[in-house]
Amino acid sequence: MRAFLDPDFHPGLLGGGQLGRMLLAAGFRFQQRFSVLDPDPRAPCFDLCPPGQFLQGALTDHDRVCSFAENLDLLTVEIENVSTSALRALRDRGVVVRPAPEVIELVQDKLVQKRFLRERGFPTADFVPVDRANDLVGLRDRLPGVLKLRRAGYDGRGVRVLKSEADFDQAFEQPALLEHLVPFEREIAVLVSRNASGEIACYDAVEMEFHPEQNLVELLFAPARLSDTLQKRARELACDLANTLGIEGLLAVEMFVHEERLLINEIAPRPHNSGHHTIEACVTSQFEQHLRAILNLPPGDPRLVQPAVMINLLGESGSAASFEAKTAQVRKLLARPGVHLHLYGKRESRPFRKMGHITVTDANLEQALKTAREIRRQIGNGISATGPG
Fold first, then answer.
1. Which residues is 256 bridged to in the sheet?
2. Each residue's pLDDT tens digit, 194-214
3. Residue span of the structural domain in which 72 resides
4. Tell me, what CATH number does 170's domain have?
5. Domain check: are 355 and 299 in the same one?
6. Predicted TM-score (pTM) above 0.90
7. Any idea what the Cα angle at residue 179 is, between residues 175 and 185, rounded to 5°?
8. Are residues 283 and 346 in the same domain?
9. Residues 70 and 205 in one domain
C-alpha cells in the first residue's frame, strides 16, 4: 500500500450513507479523497465525492465490488451488508481491506456472532437457533424472548419481542435466533479503535434510550450513568473483544447492564450511531478515529471533553409542515447554546428513516438532557423529514 501522504494514494468506501458522509468529512483534513460505491445514485456521500469518484452499484455484487475497488490502495466499509467474497479477492490482489473480510463476515450473521462471543468467553444473553417459524412451538419454555433475523436486520428491523405463544404469528420465516429477554436496567455502547500495529483507543460508555416500538435510538447521552467499576469493565470488555477479533478500524460494542453485570448484545465493525456525539464532545471524533486506525496511524485522544446528548432525527409519515416552517424551527434551535445540527442530505423521507441528528453539549449532563428532551417535545421525530427534494 502506498503511504497515505502519497498524492496517488487512493482509498475507497463501500456504502455512501450518513456514516460515510461524516467519514469523508473527516478525511478531508487528512487529504483523503475517497471513491464511494452505493446503490443509491444520490446517497448522502454523493455531494462530498470528487467528480467521477461516486459510483453506483450493489454492495453485495461480487463483480461490481471488485471492479470498483481493483485500483484502490485501501478499502473500508460503513455497512456490513457487502460481498465478503469480493473483499477476499481484492485482498489477494493487493488491496488493503480494513476491517478484514473475516470480521465483516462474522457480524453479518447474528448466530455466528453470538457463537463466537460465547465460545471465547464473552458474556452474552442465552440464545438458540430458529431455522423456521414452526420451530418456536418447541421453544415455549424460552419465552419471553427476542427473535432476531440472522441476516440483514438493522436499525430495529428484523427484531421481534415474543412474550407468549400468541406472538408466534409475528415470527420470521427466514433463519433467526431466539434470545433470552434480558430485564436490563440500561443499554450502553462502547466504541474502541485498533490499528494494524495493535494500538488501541477506547471511548467511555454511552447510554441509549430506544423508541418503544421501532427499536431505534431516540436519545443517547455521554457519559453513561454507571459506577466507575462498571464503566471500567465496559471499556475492558470492548478492548478485549477488539484484540480477540484483531480488528483494524473502529468497533462498536453494544451491551446490556443487568444487576451490575454486562452482557454483550451486538457488535459493529465500523463507525456507529452511538458515536455521533464524539464530533463535538470528544477530543477525537469516531470518524477521525476510524480513519487513523485503517491508515495505521497513532490513535487520537478519545477523552470526553464535555457531557453530551444526541437526538436522532427520524423521518415522519404524513407530515404537513412546510419547508419554511421547518426552517423557522431550525433557526430557533440553533439560537440555543450548545445545540449542534447535522443533516444527512437524504432526498427521500420515510417513517423512522434517519435523516439527521442533533447533539446538545453542556458542562452538566442533566442540563443537556433537559434541553434535549425539550427539543424532542418541540420538533417531534424530525426537522428534516419534509425538506426539499
1. 187, 263
2. 999 999 999 999 999 987 666
3. 11-97
4. 3.30.1490.20
5. yes
6. yes
7. 145
8. yes
9. no
Which residue bears the cell 427473535? 147
Instruction: Verify that 159 and 191 share a domain, yes or no.
Output: no
Same domain as 170, residue 93: no
Query: Is 119 a domain residue?
Result: no
In this predicted model, what pLDDT tens digit does every residue of 138-196 receive, in sequence order? 999 999 999 999 998 766 678 999 999 999 998 999 999 999 999 999 999 999 999 99
Of 321, 291, 335, nearest in space to 386 by CA:
321
Examine residue 237 and state whether it is found in any structural domain, yes or no: yes
Q: What is the pLDDT of residues 37-56, one digit of tens each?
A: 999 999 999 999 999 999 99
The grid cell for 386 is 419534509
Task: Provide the domain count of the chain.
Answer: 3
Is 352 a member of any domain? yes
Domain end, chosen from 145, 160, 180, is at 180
Residue 16: inside a domain: yes
Q: What is the 3-state secondary structure (H, E, C) of the chain?
A: CCCCCCCCCCEEEECCCHHHHHHHHHHHHCCCCCEEEECCCCCCCHHHCCCCCEEECCCCCHHHHHHHHCCCCEEEECCCCCCHHHHHHHHHCCCEECCCHHHHHHHHCHHHHHHHHHHCCCCECCEEEECCHHHHHHHHHHCCEEEEECCCCCCCCCEEEECCHHHHHHCCCCCEEEEECCCCCEEEEEEEEECCCCCEEECCCEEEEECCCCCCEEEEEECCCCCHHHHHHHHHHHHHHHHHHCCCEEEEEEEEEECCEEEEEEEECCCCHHHCCHHHHECCCHHHHHHHHHCCCCCCCCCECCCEEEEEEECCCCCCCCHHHHHHHHHHHHCCCCEEEEECCCCCCCCCCEEEEEEEECCCHHHHHHHHHHHHHHHCCCCCCCCCC
Q: What angle do CA 272, 217, 60 make, to 5 degrees?
A: 45
**Residue scoring higher pLDDT (154 or 378):** 378
Long-range pairs of 325-330 with CB within 8 A, sequence gap ≥ 24:
326/383, 326/384, 326/386, 326/387, 329/378, 329/379, 329/383, 330/383
